[in-house]
Amino acid sequence: MSNLPSHARVVIIGGGAVGASALYHLAKAGWTDCVLLEKNELTAGSTWHAAGNVPTFSSSWSIMNMQRYSASLYRELGVLVDYPMNYHVTGSLRLGHSKERLQEFKRVVGMGRYQGMDLDILSPGEIRSKYPFVEMHDLTGALYDPYDGDIDPAQLTQALAKGARDMGAKIFRFCPATGARRENDEWIISTPQGEIGCEYVVNAAGYYAREVGKWFGRDVPMMVMSHQYMLFEEIPELAAWSKEVGHKLPLLRDVDSSYYLRQEKTGMNLGPYEKNCKAHWVTPDDPMPEDFSFQLFPDDLERLEWYLNDAVERVPILGTAGLSRMINGPIPYAPDGNPLIGPMPGVPNAFEACVFTFGICQAGGAGKVLAEWVTEGQTEWDMWSCDPRRYTRFASDRDYCIAKGMEVYGHEYAMHFPKHAWPAGRNRKLSPIHDRIAALGAQFKPYNGWERANWYAKPGDDTSEESTQTWDRAGPWQKRIEEECLAVRDAAGILDLPGFSRYRLKGEGARDWLLGLITGKVPRPGRIGLAYFADDRGRIVTEMSVMALEDDFFFLITAATAQWHDFEWLQKHLPKDAAFALDDVTENFACQILSGPKSRDILAEVTDADLSKPWLTHQSCQIAGRWLQLVRVSFAGELGWELHTKVDDTAAVFDAVWAAGQKHGLTPFGMEALDSLRIEKGYRAWKGDLSTDYTILQGGLERFVDWTKHAFKGKAALEQEKQQGVSKRFVTLVVEADDCDAPYMSTLWHDGKVVGETTSGNWGYRVGKSVALGMLRADLAEPGTEIEVEIYGDRFRAIVQPDQPLFDPNNERLRA
């Protein structure tokens, strides 16, 4: 007779390090009625053959938070759960070969400092004091992380499992989940030992996550890579050194050559991420097996030859050691290399905690985040970098996942430069006028799969991928972006903006429902306005433009990347007996932005619309005999309109406007120019300036709060915050920057103390200054306050600006 209970509050499918951590953290949160199902023994998937490295390094703020938490948890876990832990905190060195790599390191040092970690940059002359066996050719410096180390993955998983069991959670080994169905508002999970019902289910199935997802109608965007590492026999010189100093070498990563080298007892472990990599289970002659527990792929040493030779040149003692064993196992990859943690898109009460490329170092933090998602419906840190809803349907295409997974693997340690666009998996979604703007010189970058013009090149401009590999402001694009910004300022510019997420809300009661969900007012028919959605803690969930066509008929418009996230947020709060309907109509429409002082003159030549209608109004009209919605708004901060068209009508409308605009100086402009223009106006960008890391009040959005409303989501928390005082405030900064503008999460300093962070930064071509938006300690948020902004390791003077736009502070041009 099976011991499997008939019901649990949560069922977790998958018993690797991540699944065990999720169970542990759920139990820790008081949810002890939870069950983990594992088809074999715990760790049977990627966990058992993982190398077990535990870095804290990341250029992502949220992933650094997650990895920092993991490292902190692992240091005390053995004592917490009374289980022996083989965890070595050795520190690590990341070697740099270029100025750009050192800039990346310096930025991460600043982020780490803000999170309480004391990372350091070593000069070439200091590296050997930490790692005496390294050769110094070609090095510009290194990042030293004293918190890095390695752990036994099996012990980690068993320790988390023991801790969960001790708190009352249950684990069933050799009990595979075989299917799932929805019945009476709960999930029924099938196993050979019977069925188990649950309120919530978590897909933590590792490289089988795609197969598990199919049970829920979910096509998980992932693929599987073959990752190899080599274990070497004892090196006498290393053994003698370790015995003398009493500790292991720091883990060494030559990130520009793309491998790590770790001391393994008295030998070494070399793990390359080779460009000539191999995907598995992606062709008919290599199908995914039903069970791959505790199995490996055949060795493929030839792929690693260059990396082995490079490592021997860097650490010559490695060349004296014999090869003792090869490990070649499957590792799952999402298209951007980040895991999937959070709500399963479109599936009620289902979550994902899967597709971990670095599952051991992220497992602790992932379990914390997943438990928060399940038990509270929200997380402490904004986790958009890992949210499954960051992808939409296009990303589940098998060929796309394979191409992107191989690209990420082959560039695992690559720097992610702001102007660079990765070439694999492109042209998934094209604007109706893609060919036209391409002919005008558009240099494209994908946004939720949509190819948008980033900037427009002219003949002779360097448009090579190599030219974009810099953190500097300067590049072949700089003059062109300036020209585009000044054309919008002095004449007119047109920007093709496909992919705006768009939802139609219509029916009796729609206005009242929306009023209770947003912080502010709902616009009257014929008007459009910004609406902010807060969570129960008063934090910024999202921003949407609300276009009111009738009293109970709206279009809600939001960012392209927010399509699934925002639609799910709205659906989650729909009343069960609603008389109104909510539909995602994103694919039906396209949009162009026409901005600049000549934009009215251009439109007057092609439409009989009432162009005297004021800012924040909209109207239906025709251009070239085609319907469109003409909306009097401008994210560029100039006189302007958005032209919302049906997809099939877009080209005709664009052609008419383009032809009419030539005598008025109409110029195409791209996303880079738009970002410069919006930052001069202090307009916030989603998941940078607007995220759940900040409350509505911290974000400087109180003017969008209607305190007179009886209730709205987050009101109680915001009222309490207002009474107690806001701890930090949104500010605009003018920065005396050098070659680089402030990237996201640059540290703000005052009197030698960290006092805030930037949320975005760029050069303002209309004001001729480097501008940053950020969150600053409230007592320093007074205009004229002098602070410092840390940009790639150097601090630059910055001045807090008045709470108004830098450019056209009274919005006279916008309202013209």
Automatic annotation (TrEMBL):
Segment forming the signal sequence: none
The GCVT N-terminal domain, residue ranges: 433-709
Name of the protein described by the UniProt record: GcvT family protein
Organism placement in taxonomy: Bacteria, Pseudomonadati, Pseudomonadota, Alphaproteobacteria, Hyphomicrobiales
Keyword Electron transport: no
Residue ranges of every copy of the Aminomethyltransferase C-terminal domain listed in the record: 728-808
Family that this chain belongs to: Belongs to the GcvT family.
InterPro entries given in the database record: FAD-dep_OxRdtase, FAD/NAD-bd_sf, FAO_M, GcvT/YgfZ/DmdA, GcvT/YgfZ_C, GcvT_C, GCVT_N, TrmE/GcvT-like
Annotated ranges, domain FAD dependent oxidoreductase: 9-373
Record domain FAD dependent oxidoreductase central: where: 376-431
Keyword annotations: Oxidoreductase
